[in-house]
Specification:
The structure is a single chain. With 300 residues, the protein is of the alpha/beta class. It has one domain: P-loop containing nucleotide triphosphate hydrolases (Rossmann fold, 3-Layer(aba) Sandwich), CATH 3.40.50. It is 47% helix and 14% strand. The protein contains twelve helices and seven strands. Helix 6 packs antiparallel against helix 12 and helix 9 packs across helix 11. The chain binds guanosine-5'-triphosphate and magnesium ion. The site of guanosine-5'-triphosphate (GTP) has 23 residues, from helix 4 and helix 7.
């Protein structure tokens, strides 16, 4: 039998280890999901080229929802309408970080570094919490995208509308994501349109662009079940992520608030989300086809 002194040292050491582990977990949790204020954000530090930050574990996203543990993710989400987990994806340089930055700081940022891992932003508005998680869009990070789909309530797919050569790749990546989760509500942000319209002559060019944000606002999407889709075809147009403006931001958050409720609540309906997603999907196809028709795009 070991002397009591040895037990004393052992339990002291164990206690210290448990306390240290607990502190680390709490610090990690608070860092990833900081509370308080209108916004919380976790920005990765600028990294040296080629250095990869660890992606967040899938765990914190799901445990962050106020869901009962014995129900399915879909059911638990339906019980909690006060928060949304939004996955923000898109090819590298599409403008994901810029959108997040605007939403979290209400200020434009001239330059953003490529995301080597992830960025997350929490927005609180009217008792509503929206968690946005951006995963970097470079090819090596796209490999991990699908692992985050099951925790997301909405997928926001950001497209660089002016990057014509990469539109087919963007579409293919989106198709793969939708094939993995056909019910996932989808918002496509057609970003960088200012760059397109600068290259096109006046109204002729603008006629081809997706519906403007103002149209979405006029539709007051949260009050009518299908008006989001009717008004915008699922394609939300942000003229410029860096100049999103209060209107654009409000529209975006409104969409996030109402959109998944419409789709996921009807998840079992045969004409529900899959049909809707198909329409968004088609809208994206049309958007891309129009991009191809605009020969001037190639000179942007
Ligand atoms: N002209 C223009 N430039 C933009 C717009 N949005 C973002 N940018 C610029 O495009 C570049 C890439 O933007 P990011 O927000 O870093 O793109 P990202 O999608 O986060 O890219 P990754 O993190 O690499 O996946 C930055 O230099 C931005 O300043 C826009 O609407 N118009
Ligand atoms: Mg980024």
């Amino acid at each position: 039998m070991a002397p009591p002194g040895a037990f004393g040292h052992l339990s002291l050491a164990l206690g210290a280890a448990v306390a240290a582990l607990g502190s680390i977990l709490i610090i990690a949790w608070r860092t990833y999901f900081p509370g308080g204020g209108r916004c919380g954000a976790r920005w990765e530090p600028p990294l040296a080229a080629g250095q990869n930050a660890a992606l967040p574990l899938a765990g914190p996203c799901i445990s962050h929802s106020a869901a009962p543990t014995n129900s399915s993710p879909l059911l638990s989400w339906q019980l909690d309408f006060s928060m949304r987990q939004v996955l923000v994806l898109g090819l590298e340089g599409a403008g994901k970080s810029s959108v997040l930055h605007y939403i979290s700081s209400e200020a434009a940022k001239d330059r953003t570094a490529p995301t080597q891992g992830f960025n997350s932003v929490q927005v609180y508005a009217d008792g509503f919490q929206i968690d946005l998680l951006e995963l970097g869009g470079s090819q090596n990070l796209r490999f991990y995208w699908n692992q985050y789909l099951s925790q997301a309530h909405v997928l926001v797919f950001v497209v660089d509308s002016a990057d014509r050569p990469h539109l087919p790749t963007a579409r293919q990546e989106l198709h793969w994501l939708l094939a993995e989760d056909p019910r996932l509500p989808l918002v496509i942000l057609a970003n960088k349109q200012v760059r397109i319209s600068r290259c096109l002559a006046g109204s002729q060019g603008r006629a081809h662009l997706p519906s403007p944000v103002s149209r979405c606002l006029r539709a007051r999407c949260c009050n009518h079940s299908l008006c989001v889709e009717e008004a915008t075809g699922g394609l939300v147009s942000l003229p410029h992520a860096q100049e999103m403006g209060a209107e654009g931001e409000r529209c975006f958050l409104e969409l996030i608030r109402c959109f998944p409720k419409l789709s996921r609540a009807d998840a079992e309906e045969p004409q529900g989300p899959p049909a809707l997603v198909q329409r968004y999907f088609n809208a994206f196809r049309v958007g891309i086809a129009e991009g191809h028709r605009q020969e001037t795009l190639g000179r942007c």
